[in-house]
Amino acid sequence: MRGVTAGSEPVLELLPMVFADPGEARARAELVLEAAPAPLAASIAHQVLGIWQRDFGDLRIALRHLRRARDLAARADSADREADVLATLGVALVHAGRTRQGLASFERGVARGTGHTRARVLYRRAYVWWVLGHHREALEDVRRALPVLRQLGDDIWTARALTLRATVHLALGAVERADADFTAAERLWDTTGQEHDKADAVESRGLAAFRSGDVPAALRLLDEAEERYAKLGTPTYMLSIRRCEVLMAAGLAPEALAEADAAIALLDRIGGQSTRKAELLLAAARAARSAGDAPTAIARAAVAVRLFAAQRRLWWETHARLVLIEARVADGRRSGRLVGDAAAVAERLASFGSPAAPEASLLAGRIALALGWTADAERHLAVAARGRHAGPAPARMTGWAAQALRARAAGSRRGVLEACRRGLDVLDDHRMTLGASELRAHVTAQGAELAALAQEVSLTHGGPRRLLEWSERWRATVLSAPPARPPADPALLSGLTAYREIAARAEEARMEGRPVPALEREQRRLEREIRSRTRHIRGSAPHEGDRFDVPRLLDRLGDDRLVELAVVEGRVHVLLCGQGKVRRFAAGPLAEAVAEAEYVQAGLRRLAHPGAEARLPLVEAAGERLQELLLGGAVPHLGTGPVVIVPPGALHRVPWALLPALRDRVLSVSPSAGSWLRARETEPPRDGRTVLVRGPGLATGGAEVPELADRYGTATVLEREDAQVPRVLAELDGAGLAHLAAHGTFRADSPLFSALRMADGPLIVHDFERLDRSPYRIILSSCDTARLASVGADELLGLVTALLPLGTAGVVASSAPVNDAAVIPLMLALHKGLTAGLSLAEALRDARTTLPSDTVHQATGWAFAAFGAA
C-alpha cells in the first residue's frame, strides 16, 4: 500500500503526518481530493481530514469524512484499509457520545483486519476502553497489540501503545509501572519525527510527575507540552484537564476553574468532542468545589454526570457523582440518602481500583457523623482511614482526616491530636517540595480541616498552651523557610526585565492619557510567564525546621506581652502570653470584627485627605468596637510594656495603633508567634550599611530622603536614574537598614506582583525573593505596602511577608493609603528614634507622639505599623 499515490504524492504517508504536522497533513489531503483520486487514495485522504476534524475541529464534519472514507475503502475492496478506517470512525463515534455505535465499529474493524492492521485497531480500541473507563479491557487489548507492533518494528505505534498503557496504569494508581512504560515510549519517540506524539509524551510525563507527588515538575512539563502544541497549532483539551488537576493539588482551584471553563467554551464554539467536554465539566466541578463555590460545582457536576451516563462511561460517571455529592454536602445538604449515595459511589470506585475510593468513604462517614449515625460513620471512616500510611500525600491526608474524625466520634482527644499531627506532617513534607512561596501558601488549605479539628479539641479539652501550639501549627508556615530559587534562571530574569519595561511604558502612557490595551495584554502575558517559571522551582527535602516551642517564646517575652488571636468555630479567642504563662480570654465573632475592620479602613482612606475631620470621632468609635471584638477581657491584663499582636489572616488589615488600649504602646505585629521568635533571634549584619531609595512620581518628591542622607552621612542614596531595580536590589542585599520612599501598589488578584515604583519600572515581590538576604530593617515609606492577601489555611502573601523569611527582622509599612506630605514628619521622627538606638516599634510609637494633632497626621500615624521584632 505504500505506493498508493495521487499524482506524485505518496498518500499513505499522510496518515503518520497528521500526528507529526497536523496542519500540513490537512492541506495535502485536500489537494489529493481535488485531483479526483481512485477510491483507495480518496479513502486515505478523507480519513486524514476526519482525524484532523475529530481531534482539532468539528466532530460532525469528522464523522462525515470518516463514513466517506469507510465507504471508499469498501469500494476499493481492501479489508485492511476498511478495518483501519473503522477503527478511526469508532474513536470519533465514542468521542461524539455514541458509544454503542463506536464499539460496534471496532468489532467490525477487529474482524476485518489482519496482522499489522489488526494490531493497530486493537490499540485504538484500547484507547477507547480507557476513555470509557474500562481499564481491564484496555490493558487486554494493549497486551494483544504490543507483541505484533514490536515484531514488525513499528516504533510509532509501539510508542503509542506504551504511552496508553502507562496512562491506564496511572488511572489505577500504579505509578512505577507507568514510569517504566513512559520511559520506554520516550526512547522510541526520540527516533521519530512525530512532533504531536512527542508533545503528548511530554504531557504524559507531566501527569506521571504529578502522580508521583512532584508538582513543580508536573507544571514545568505541562507548560513545555503546551509550547510544543502551540507550535503545531493544535488545541489542548486533554492538557487543560490534566493541568486543572495539578493546579488544584497546588491549591490554585480558582485558576483551574478558569482554565476548564475557557476550554469548555472553545469546545462549544467548534462543536468538538462530547467526551472531552464531559471530562472538562468534571474538572471544572472539582475546581469549583475546591474553591468553595458549591453552586457552580453542583451545576457542572450534574451536567457531567448526565453526559457520562449518555456516553456509557460508568467509571467517569461514578467520579462525577462523587464530586456532585461532595458539592451538595458543601452546600449544606445532609440526608440519609446522601450517605447511601456516597457509600455506593465508594463501593463502585473500589471495584474499579480507583484511588478516589477512600475519598468517597470519607464523605459517607462525614455525612453520617453529621446525622448522628455513629455506627455507620465508623464503618465508612474505618475504610477511608486504611490509606493513611501509604500512597501519595493527598491519599494519606484523606486517611488521617478519616482517622481524626473516628477519634473525635469515639471521644479520644489524644487520638484526634495524633491524627491531626500525622496528617499535617504529611502536608508539611509535601509543601516543602514546592519551591514557590505562592504554591506553599495556597497548598496549606488542604490542612485547614485537620488544624481546625485540633484547635476545637484543644479549646474544649486542653489548656491555653495547647490551643496556642495548635494555632501556631498551621499558621504562616510559608514564613518558616525562604522560597527556593534557581541559581540564575536566565528565562526568569529576562521575563522580569521585560515585565518591568512594559509596566513602565504602560504607566507612562496612562499618565499621558494614551490608550494602553496592547501594553496591558503584554503585561498580563509576562505575568503568566513569570508565575509559571517560579512555579517550576522545586523545593528542598522534607522540612526539618524548628517546631514552635511555648517555653522558648515565654522566655524571650519576659514581662512583655504577645497576643495571639485564635479563631475557633467562627469566634475569636485571645491567647495572652507573658510573665511565664499563657491565658485565654473570649472575644467576639470573627465576621463582625472583619466587617468593623473594613469600615475602619474606609475611614482611614477618607482621613488621609484634608476636610474629613468630621469622620474622626466615627473612626475612633469604630476602634473601640474593634478592641471589644478582638481583645475582649484581655485588655486589663496587657500590662504596661510592649505588646506583640499575632492576628489571623482575615484580620491583617486592622490598624492596631487605633485601638485605645494599644494607641500609646510600643506595638508590633507578626504573622505568627514563631515568625516573631525567628525575627527576635535574627542577628543583624556586621557592616550595618544604610540604603536610602527615592522612587519617581511622589507628590513630595520623597523629601525626607535628603534629610536622612545628611543624618546618616555614609548612607548609599539611590535616586533618579540610580534608583533602577537591578542597582536597588544589589544595594539592598545584606543591608542593615533600608528606607524606600516610593509609590506602592497592592495587587489583590496577584499579591506577588505588588510593587514599589522605581525609575525603570516596578520592583515586585518576585524581585525581593531573589535576594540572598533582605535588609535587617526595612522602612517602606509608601501607601498599602503592609497590605497582604490571605490565602490557604492562614497564610499571607505580600511585600512584608516576602521579606521576613529572607533575613529581615523588622519592617515598617502602611496598611492604607496615606497622605504623602504627612508621611515626611513621621519618617523623620522615626529615624531620629532609630539613631538613638530604639527598635522600630519603639521609634514608631515615639514618632506618632511628635506629629501635629490634626486629623490627617493622626490617620497617617495609625496607618503605619511595625512588623517583626527588630
Structural write-up:
The structure is a single chain. The protein is of the alpha/beta class and 870 residues long. The protein is 61% helix and 9% strand. The chain is built from 38 helices and 18 strands. It has a 6-stranded mixed sheet with strand order 9-8-10-14-17-18, sandwiched between helices. A hairpin with a 2-residue loop joins strand 4 and strand 5. It is globular. The N terminus is likely disordered.
Biggest sheet record: 6 strands, mixed
Number of strands: 18
Q: Helical content, roughly? A: 55-70%
Category by helix and strand content: alpha/beta
Low-confidence stretches: 1-9
Shape: globular
Relative strand content: 5-15%
Strands ordered across the widest β-sheet: 9-8-10-14-17-18
Kindly report the average pLDDT value: 89
Count of DSSP-assigned helices: 38
Give the radius of gyration.
Answer: 31 Å
Q: What is the distance, rounded to the nearest whole angstrom, between the alpha carbons of the first and last residues?
A: 80 Å
Can I get a quick summary?
The chain is 61% helix and 9% strand. 57% of the residues are buried.
Structural features:
six-stranded mixed sheet, 870 residues, alpha/beta, globular, 61% helix, single chain
Helix/strand layout:
Layout: E1 5-6, E2 9-10, H1 14-20, H2 22-34, H3 39-56, H4 59-75, H5 79-95, H6 99-112, H7 115-132, H8 135-151, H9 155-171, H10 175-189, H11 195-211, H12 215-232, H13 237-249, H14 253-270, H15 274-290, H16 294-310, H17 314-330, H18 336-352, H19 357-371, H20 374-385, H21 393-409, H22 413-431, H23 437-443, H24 448-461, H25 464-473, H26 490-511, H27 517-535, H28 550-557, E3 561-568, E4 571-578, E5 581-589, H29 590-607, H30 616-630, E6 643-646, E7 667-669, H31 673-680, E8 690-694, H32 704-712, E9 716-719, H33 725-732, E10 737-741, E11 744-745, E12 755-758, E13 761-764, H34 765-768, E14 777-780, E15 789-791, E16 795-797, H35 799-803, E17 810-814, H36 820-835, H37 840-850, H38 855-863, E18 864-868
Parallel strand pairs: 3-6, 6-7, 8-9, 8-10, 10-14, 14-17
Antiparallel strand pairs: 1-2, 3-4, 4-5, 11-12, 12-13, 15-16, 17-18
